[in-house]
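Q: My collaborator sent me two sequences in one message, no labels, and asked for predicted structures for both. Can we handle them in order? The first one she listed is below.
A: Yes, handling them in the order given. First sequence, followed by its structure tokens:
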Amino acid sequence: MIKQITTFCIGLAILAGFSQAQDASTPAPVAGKKALIAYFSATGTTAAAAKELAEATGGTLHAITPAQPYSEADLNWRDKNSRCYVEMHDPAARPALKAETLNLAEYDTVYIGFPIWWDTYPSIIATFIESHDLKGKTLIPFATSGGSGISNSGEMLKKAYPTLQWKPGMLLNGMSASEIRAGLR
């Protein structure tokens, strides 16, 4: 049932996404510069978008992986005791990341991807940002959503991390690499 609802929501989001797709001012990475596509995906939807973005930009994929994976019960946004509900309603929540080796010195542009939860980015994105030195990097959020746009998430990221260099975000619901490339131009 959850897969059917998710599929239906993705379909609606694809239709909505084309009306608000990418901001034309979102820059593509500068030639000769390396891009990192860092993404969190709870169900695989954002992972698919990240792969298309990596193909479109030539960027390197990096999964933002929680130390404790999210179960189906953890993702039940209607249950006030579910993990995602509790995390998203606690501004101090910072879900632990799985141990990783990531050399950000290699990258000039970092695309940060996530599913939109409660009209914003999941708490694990804050964990990722706060766990890495992103100063001097061009940061471009991208997201997938069953009904929300990305503008609120982008504004909240700028507000939470005002010293970082944010560019307008992109909603990538079901877009192919060629559609993403066209939007990046």
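Q: And the one she listed second?
A: Here it is, processed independently of the first:
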Amino acid sequence: MMTALAGATLADVGVDAVALKPTEVDVRRASGLSVATLTIDYEGRDHVPEPETLADLDAGRDVRLTVPVRADGFDPHGDDRLLRSVPESVGLVAVAGNPAYLDARECRRAIAPRLRAVAGLADDPWVGTESVERVALAVGGTQYDLLSGTTEAEISALRSAGFEGDVAVYAPLVLTDDEDTILDALGPYAGRRPDVRKRLPAETPTDSRATGSAREALLDGLGEYALAGNVETISERVDRLREAGVDHVVAYPARGLDPFLD
């Protein structure tokens, strides 16, 4: 049976920011979360929150909209109508953009000059590093990284090399000590990581139906790519990230907002 860990909060595990997926949650409900920062993921033009919604969320906290710099509507070198509609008080997270939300024409657009242009529009930009790590570092701003098993070593090396800017790390979050619940929420996510996928037998389920070595591989992967487990497990991982030099831990609540609303 699942242990609910009733009463545990984002603050208990050291998370200071939450990533919202507008296709999964009503982003307006995030006003009840006890975190300093909200980031809103991009899942296609049809799901970008209205400017009024962004402005309402921005009251009393840092709200940031993900800007896929190659996508029509957000392209600083072309169609930028959605970019121009973002309220001035809302921060920007400039990213290359997931190809799943881009057409072939958009995918062919040059990333580096567009990242630089969008970052130049913000006083305190965040820049997504996924697949464009060197470009993101050259652009500057807060480096927004995806959690992996090498994150701590990479950030430590970055700090040792003299990088003094902020670093934010994005990670899916499931706060429970029940393995089946964790796998149902995040097993497919782990199964898409190349180093985990190669350990899985062909056509094996990646949710709570997984057994044996496949189950072990998925859970091991989630130990690297996600914040999953009880309060102690997650808070220890967050502490290690902080010690390595991470400034912001951005959690995507994979089971929705309800467990964390005040």
